């Protein structure tokens, strides 16, 4: 039995609330159980320098965790002068995940930045960030469409969402909370599109290696979880 009493393939309660930031072109408050992440998308008229003259735009992300998002206060990274390695890894992951489903030519030489701020952390902050960031990006693109800023058809080619899986007490389980994540024998994150394409797979063993069969079991759980997340995204933006 899992500490949360959930079944092996049961996710925490997930909610997606749109339009929670007044000034952002798109925003979403996403919750995975007790994990809460605020995602806000900003449309910038100027793209990155290396794309100047190409006609293509860019989608990127920034990630941060508030000092009291965890049990003990964490020092704000701005006071140390640079983001941690973990922060850089996660924000690059979120950016890659979003770009996988966007036609960058359709947005012109502009940049969309999605800020993901963790208000409360209980495991799965990166997967929640990706799932909520898609909703914020969707609304930012709709904002651009309403102002005739897009070239051609809708640049959003598909949904993308992410979920964690792991092997806990010898059993593959879906959507780890902090208690499970901190003691998992294997911890994995899957980023998957609505069409079932794999964008990124991150898997790490703590101690004993995991087998190919266990990896496939985790992938099966992840696909089921992401299909539910995509259904929630569709309902949120309907």
UniProtKB/TrEMBL annotation:
Top EC class for this record: transferase
Reaction equation(s) it catalyzes: tRNA(n+1) + phosphate = tRNA(n) + a ribonucleoside 5'-diphosphate
GO MF annotation list: 3'-5'-RNA exonuclease activity; tRNA binding; tRNA nucleotidyltransferase activity
CDD domains: RNase_PH_bact
InterPro entries for the chain: ExoRNase_PH_dom1 (IPR001247), ExoRNase_PH_dom2 (IPR015847), ExoRNase_PH_dom2_sf (IPR036345), PNPase/RNase_PH_dom_sf (IPR027408), Ribosomal_Su5_D2-typ_SF (IPR020568), RNase_PH (IPR050080), RNase_PH_bac-type (IPR002381), RNase_PH_CS (IPR018336)
Annotated GO biological process: rRNA 3'-end processing; rRNA catabolic process; tRNA processing
Residues binding phosphate, per UniProt: 86, 124-126
PROSITE patterns: RIBONUCLEASE_PH
Keyword Cell membrane carried by entry: no
Keyword Secreted: no
Family, as annotated: Belongs to the RNase PH family.
NCBIfam families: RNasePH (TIGR01966)
HAMAP family: RNase_PH
Subunit record text: Homohexameric ring arranged as a trimer of dimers.
Function: Phosphorolytic 3'-5' exoribonuclease that plays an important role in tRNA 3'-end maturation. Removes nucleotide residues following the 3'-CCA terminus of tRNAs; can also add nucleotides to the ends of RNA molecules by using nucleoside diphosphates as substrates, but this may not be physiologically important. Probably plays a role in initiation of 16S rRNA degradation (leading to ribosome degradation) during starvation.
PANTHER family linked: EXOSOME COMPLEX COMPONENT (PTHR11953), EXOSOME COMPLEX COMPONENT RRP41 (PTHR11953:SF0)
Protein name, UniProt field: Ribonuclease PH
Taxonomy of the source species: Bacteria, Pseudomonadati, Pseudomonadota, Alphaproteobacteria, Hyphomicrobiales
Gene expressing this chain: rph
């Amino acid at each position: 039995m899992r500490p949360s009493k959930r079944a092996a393939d049961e996710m925490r309660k997930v909610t997606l609330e749109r339009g929670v930031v007044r000034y952002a072109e798109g925003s979403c408050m996403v919750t995975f159980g007790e994990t809460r992440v605020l995602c806000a998308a900003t449309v910038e008229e100027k793209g990155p320098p290396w794309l100047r003259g190409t006609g293509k735009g860019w989608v990127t992300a920034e990630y941060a965790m508030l000092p009291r998002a965890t049990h003990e206060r964490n020092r704000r990274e701005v006071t140390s002068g640079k983001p941690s390695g973990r922060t850089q890894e996660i924000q690059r992951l979120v950016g890659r995940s979003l770009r996988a489903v966007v036609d960058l030519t359709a947005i012109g030489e502009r940049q969309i930045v999605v800020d993901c701020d963790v208000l409360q952390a209980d495991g799965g902050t990166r997967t929640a960030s990706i799932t909520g960031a898609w909703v914020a990006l969707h609304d930012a693109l709709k904002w651009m469409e309403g102002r005739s800023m897009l070239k051609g058809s809708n640049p959003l080619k598909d949904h993308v969402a992410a979920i964690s899986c792991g092997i806990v007490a010898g059993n593959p389980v879906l959507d780890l909370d902090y208690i499970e994540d901190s003691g998992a024998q294997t911890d994995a994150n899957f980023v998957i599109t609505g069409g079932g394409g794999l964008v990124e797979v991150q898997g790490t063993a703590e101690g004993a290696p995991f087998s190919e069969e266990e990896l496939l079991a985790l992938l099966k759980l992840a696909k089921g979880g992401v299909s539910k997340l995509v259904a929630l995204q569709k309902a949120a933006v309907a």
